[in-house]
Write a structure and sequence with these properties.
- It is a single chain.
- The chain is α+β, with helices and mostly antiparallel strands.
- It has one domain: Aminopeptidase.
- 37% of the residues lie in helices and 28% in strands.
- Strands 1, 2, 3, 4, 5, 6, 7 and 8 form an 8-stranded mixed sheet that branches.
- The longest helix is centred in the middle third of the chain and has 15 residues.
- It is globular and about 40 Å long.
- It binds coenzyme A.
Length: 184
């Protein structure tokens, strides 16, 4: 079952993300700190200074026992906030991979971005072999590579991907609808 993340499960979700991505850079490590405080104007200002105009929803996948097995989220960057949303932390617990959880989280996210009227879903990822399964999943969902460049301190590339969403849906968007529920 996919549900929107709230305060009650943010710590366990953060732990999952830290376990899957132990090498987060200092800014990436701040994500859940900022998520918890995203309604505060000082935090919004701080986020804008690093090019983020909003932290939107995050979703988690709960198994029958209520355990968080995976997560995915959305945020907005200042340079393209009017037309795009970006994928924030996306991962599945190593113990529950290969069961379709990643696919359902990504499909859910694509539908949300489509229904909110944005033209593009964008993300950055890496050529690290630990993220190889994600590349296959992204390709299968039409998230095509748009750019790549070497990371500074690790022997992998940073890869940008993008999915252009249905133009018909985008044309139905009104400004009021597109902003609903997005900014905290
Ligand atoms: C990417 C990830 C979220 C996929 O989660 P998952 O629940 O295991 O994925 P699913 O079971 O839904 O499978 C989705 C697709 O991933 C790929 N995949 C899954 N397991 C794989 C494996 N062991 N080897 C290669 N590809 C694999 C396949 O393309 C699969 O589609 P298919 O079943 O139609 O072949 C998970 O592997 C993960 O957390 N990886 C580490 C974190 C990461 O890379 N996040 C993205 C960084 S930007």
């Amino acid at each position: 079952m996919i549900v929107t993340l709230n305060e009650s499960r943010v710590a366990v979700t953060e732990n999952l993300v830290r376990r899957v991505f132990p090498w987060q850079n200092p800014l990436e490590r701040m994500f859940y700190w900022a998520w918890r405080r995203r309604g505060q104007s000082s935090v919004r200002l701080l986020l804008r200074l690093v090019g983020i105009s909003a932290i939107d929803d995050t979703w988690i996948y709960l198994n029958d026992a209520g355990k968080v097995c995976g997560t995915i989220g959305l945020y907005a960057r200042t340079e393209d906030a009017a037309e795009a949303r970006w994928v924030s932390w996306f991962c599945v617990d190593p113990e529950t991979r290969g069961q379709g959880i990643g696919k359902s989280l990504l499909d859910h996210l694509i539908e949300v971005v489509r229904s909110r009227g944005y033209r593009y879903l964008r993300l950055y990822t890496g050529s690290d072999p630990d993220e190889a399964a994600a590349q296959l999943l992204y390709e299968s969902r039409g998230l095509r590579e748009t750019r790549r460049k070497p990371f500074l301190f690790v022997p992998y590339d940073k890869i940008w991907r993008e999915l252009e969403l249905d133009a018909e849906v985008v044309s139905e968007r009104t400004d009021g609808e597109s902003k609903q529920g997005l900014n905290p």
